[in-house]
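Input record, target 12 of the design panel.
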């Protein structure tokens, strides 16, 4: 069983994907982590994430098993991620690894921006997870503050809106609700509530 979960930043898709994977006993790939790791690898050596040659080289050199789960969560890595992700050559370089993960006969949960549209268009179930911008900003603010990053609500909300704009307007694999994807709005849901709602949608779709 392949479950494809897409949605914008801080919509709750990562939390939902982790909970769904646990519930159904499936392995999970957070594809945003790949773009974050590539963006981080470029800025770590003083490179420009918008420089295609540098970004593609980092994508080709990426080791999925050696991603620094803490450092990729910084806002700097997130911003670099959205810049490398807008380049078709970077997306192409990361395609095979994602498809290989999804090809496991035991099934998998993949979450990102283009799972239902590009990576796994034949997924058994597709979810599009969303939430209102101020709620997403509040969630990301709490996450960044718990990591010791200081940023104002207004500045972060502007950053997230800019990230949304870049993700939805890019020519290659823009963020959008895939055909057949079930919409899950987590604005008024707790973590447990969002995972339960996702499992109900999945059970009903199978
Ligand atoms: O989901 P997360 O915030 O970790 O993703 C970081 C960035 O990676 C996003 O802003 C998006 O530009 C990019 N991304 C993507 N396609 C995916 C997953 C993430 O373009 N499948």
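The sequence produced for target 12 reads:
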């Amino acid at each position: 069983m392949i479950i494809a979960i897409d949605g914008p930043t801080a919509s709750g898709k990562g939390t939902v994907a982790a909970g769904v994977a646990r519930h159904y006993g499936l392995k999970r790939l957070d594809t945003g982590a790949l773009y974050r790791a590539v963006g981080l690898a470029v800025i770590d050596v003083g490179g420009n994430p918008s420089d295609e040659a540098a970004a593609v080289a980092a994508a080709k050199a990426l080791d999925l098993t050696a991603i620094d789960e803490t450092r990729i969560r910084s806002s700097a890595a997130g911003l670099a991620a959205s810049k490398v992700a807008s380049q078709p050559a970077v997306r192409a370089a990361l395609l095979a690894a994602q498809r290989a993960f999804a090809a496991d006969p035991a099934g998998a949960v993949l979450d990102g921006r283009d799972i239902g549209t590009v990576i796994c268009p034949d997924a058994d179930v597709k979810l599009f997870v969303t939430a209102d911008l101020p709620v997403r900003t509040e969630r990301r603010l709490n996450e960044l503050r718990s990591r010791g990053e200081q940023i104002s609500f207004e500045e972060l909300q502007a950053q997230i809106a800019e990230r949304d704009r870049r993700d939805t307007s890019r020519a290659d694999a823009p963020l959008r609700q895939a055909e057949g994807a079930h919409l899950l709005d987590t604005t008024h849901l707790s973590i447990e509530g969002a995972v339960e709602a996702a499992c109900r949608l999945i059970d009903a779709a199978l």
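The domain at 2-205 is CATH 3.40.50.300 (Rossmann fold).
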